[in-house]
Design brief:
single chain; alpha/beta; Rossmann fold; eight-stranded mixed β-sheet; two-stranded antiparallel sheet; globular
Length: 308
């Protein structure tokens, strides 16, 4: 019997880093075996219509939620879909595209955990929760440099969207197996890239790997684990320092690969954790790379039948 696809859901507000983290995960699990779709393509109205109706793209009423549910379950069954395509540059819709279900399906977007039918489709659920001031800087850079918006328009849009962010996006955090927060170090509040720290909430809804042999106690630039509470529930919190050394990062990476089933070891590569600097240069973030690898670990374990 052919194995069904493994589904990863990634939810976060606009410019929370969904595309960046997805890119590295796809590299680990094999880009040729990975289908990536965005639930933001399922908007019900274009930009002009949303303005006329006084709706933001974050509101469920502005999206075909039932079609998202249907398509997720079709993909989980290994079936193809005809997916809509929303063009963020024009604010309108392009022709739909034919999407085949590959071994892994990564579903990123604003509202991916909004209904039980959506949540039931995923094997792993990830929520991205950067501090709002950092997300603002990421959104300003993306929307002005890549989408052609003015700074004033970006600021106005974020103000307009804030009530819906609070009502519909952030509450989805409670459904995630992992919550990822990148944040600047105390010594450099303006850091937005490769030196960001990572804080990962690991909920007991997934069997996370034993990382005890690389964990450190006390202060230091490395990897720490602590017990915590998130949204009132007990969790483990994994902290990865943005200034972790190459040696310490490699130890954690090696340990994660020891936990990944051997049939996937040919996928190991160095091309994860890549980000683009402020002047276009390519940078390496160890916290990002290790986060991408930890998420990929869960997908590869699920693909090997360990979660069934």
């Amino acid at each position: 019997m052919q194995k069904r696809p493994i589904l990863l859901g990634i939810v976060g507000d606009s410019a929370a880093g969904k595309t960046t983290i997805t890119r590295g995960i796809a590299k680990v699990i094999g880009e040729d075996r990975c289908t990536i779709i965005c639930t933001d393509d399922y908007h019900r109205y274009n930009r002009v219509e949303r303005a006329q109706k006084k709706l933001t793209a974050l509101h469920p009423d502005c999206n075909y939620m039932d079609i998202i549910e249907q398509h997720l379950h079709l993909l989980k069954e290994g079936k193809s879909i005809l997916k809509p395509h929303y063009n963020h540059a024009t604010g309108d819709f392009d022709p739909p595209s034919y999407v085949e279900a590959k071994d892994f399906i990564v579903v990123e977007g604003l509202l991916g955990f909004s209904t039980k039918a959506m949540r039931d489709a995923y094997d792993v659920k990830l929520y991205l929760a950067p501090p709002e001031d950092l997300r603002f800087r990421w959104k300003m850079k993306r929307d002005t440099q890549k989408r052609g918006h003015s700074a004033e328009a970006v600021i106005q849009e974020m103000k307009l969207r804030e009530p819906d962010s609070d009502a519909f996006i952030r509450p989805q955090r409670k459904w995630a197996d992992m919550v990822v927060c990148f944040w600047p170090p105390e010594t450099d509040k303006e850091e937005t890239g490769s030196r960001l720290n990572a804080s990962l909430v690991l909920r007991p809804t997934l069997p996370h790997p034993d990382l005890s042999e690389v964990l450190e106690h006390g202060s230091g630039n490395g990897v720490h684990m602590e017990l915590d509470r998130d949204m009132g529930l007990p969790v483990d919190r994994l902290e990865i320092d943005g200034n972790i050394s190459d040696e310490k990062a490699k130890r954690l990476e090696d340990l994660l690969w020891q936990h990944i089933p051997g049939e996937h070891h040919h996928l190991r590569q160095d091309g994860i954790g890549d980000i683009t600097g402020t002047t276009g240069e390519k940078l390496k973030s160890h916290p990002l790379a290790l986060t991408q690898l930890l998420v990929a670990y869960h997908l590869l374990k699920a693909a090997s039948g360990h979660y069934q």
